[in-house]
Amino acid sequence: MKIAFVSSEIYPFAKTGGLADVSYSLPKAVSHHGIKVISMMPLYKTVDRKKHNIVETDLYIDVSLSGKNYRFRIYKLKDDVKYYFFHNEELFDRDFLYGTPEGDYPDNDIRFGAFSYAVIEFFKKTGFYPDVVHTNDWQTALIPVLIKDKYKLPIKTVHTIHNIAYQGVFDKSTIDKLNLGWHLFNMEALEFYGKVNFLKGGIVFSDAVTTVSPTYAREICTPEYGFGLDGVLRAHCHKLYGILNGIDYDVWNPETDPYIYQNYNETSLEKKEKNKQMFLDEYGLAGIEKPLFIFIGRFAKQKGIDIIQEAIPELASMNANFAILGSGDKSYNDFFAGIKNKFPNIFIEVGYDEPLSRKMYASADFLLMPSIYEPCGLNQMIAMRYGTLVVARKTGGLADTVIDIDLPAGYGILFEHPTKTEFIKGINRAKELFRNKKRFYRLREFVMSLDFSWEASASKYIRLYEEVKFGFPKGV
Ligand code: ADP
């Protein structure tokens, strides 16, 4: 079985969020089962070619759209045939992946549309025809449309929705710009309220659609979480699967993490305390006896940033420390930059900083995730791997990976509604748990023993690939 995995971001080459982590670790886990997987992504200016040993090949792909030719030079990793990078200077040599903090690049339809064509032309030119193409999010959602409708290739397709809020919606002129054909501009295909919706195309034309947790699979079929595509998903629910993401246990491992102050495992948790002390010292916080709460994530409404923002006065007056790391929408960046260094118990860093995030996971007592919705969420799994307990809103993948301490075998704190009151209540419950040291330490050890690795989920994806290819076995 041969799989082509296509994504707009793959760790460690380019990452804006969890999609990159998944795009690194899922193909890796699948290939451990003896399945050949090649991964493909655009080669952005921000990818460090030298550091990653990315080299040019002789291969190029021409894509002609509306009379204009886009030439993609193919790059690969030196001494490795698992990754292919598609480079076109005009489309991908930019400072950001999808847009500036002010907004999306206006030609994202051409950028990712041309890339989608180039991927299929790559198959034709190299003769590497995969059994299944696994595409991800709106950026690559046109690939199943093109395979089925334009090229009519006997390649099966699986499309994964990592976040249904991002759909790739463009003006209807995109139909002409991408030579898609007006027969696709209808309610059963790409049309979405008079516009063109890439993600809808991916849902309609793929042989199977997956999303990243069972709860989110159910949620996106409802108007509250479906962002207008719930009806389409209900119509295609026979091929919709919720498969929980995992995290890469080699990448996220407190025993080997080179960025943290001291490595540790569940038998040496006193070293986690050392991490906490050193973190407090380095970032100007005081009081090892107080619980340390962290937030790491995109500053986007989805992540419950408004709730955190609203709760700042309460947090500032609590007998606890907080560390907040994130970046995203300009208004949030400005807000948090504006209150940086204002409160002695709140450390704030606006930016994207993986080494700092690792120190935070290692040093914290609790991770805060007050998400409005959360397709899967990786932070909570990473946190637990580092012995950090989770305080989260009960939604999507958070509901699938955290069990509240009031329930039998529970090990985290969940709250029902995304409001400031419930959020603060959750923090207070965490503080109470922190005071009960015996229980707190036991739970800390327990969450480190939980298995959030890719193994179980990779097997589910393999069964799904087999199912779309051969029509069996059933039931993921
Ligand atoms: P998303 O919705 O952003 O994909 P996930 O929870 O699935 O959220 O994945 C988030 C990933 O990005 C995690 O690996 C997290 O540690 C990382 N991350 C998010 N924001 C930052 C940041 N500002 N600095 C460092 N890492 C970050």
Question: Would you kindly provide a written description of the structure presented here, covering whatever features stand out?
Answer:
By secondary structure, the chain is an alpha/beta fold. The protein has helices spanning 18-31, 49-52, 89-92, 108-126, 142-151, 174-177, 198-205, 214-219, 230-235, 270-282, 305-316, 330-339, 354-363, 379-385, 396-401, 420-435, 437-449, 455-470, and strands at 2-6, 36-42, 54-65, 68-77, 83-87, 99-100, 103-104, 132-136, 156-161, 169-170, 191-192, 195-197, 208-211, 240-242, 292-299, 321-328, 346-350, 366-369, 389-393, 413-415. Helix content is 37%, strand content 21%. The chain is built from 18 helices and 20 strands. The mean pLDDT is 96. Strand 19, helix 15 (396-401) and strand 20 (413-415) form a beta-alpha-beta unit. The site of adenosine-5'-diphosphate has 19 residues, from helix 1, strand 15, strand 16, helix 13 and helix 14.
Report, as a whole number of angstroms, the end-to-end distance. Answer: 18 Å
Strand content: 15-25%
Ligand names: adenosine-5'-diphosphate
Based on DSSP secondary structure assignment, what is the total number of beta strands?
20
For the biggest β-sheet, the strand order reads 3-4-5-2-1-8-9-13-14
> Low-confidence parts, pLDDT < 50 over ≥5 residues?
none
Give the rounded overall mean pLDDT: 96
Percent range for helical residues?
A: 25-40%
Radius of gyration: 23 Å
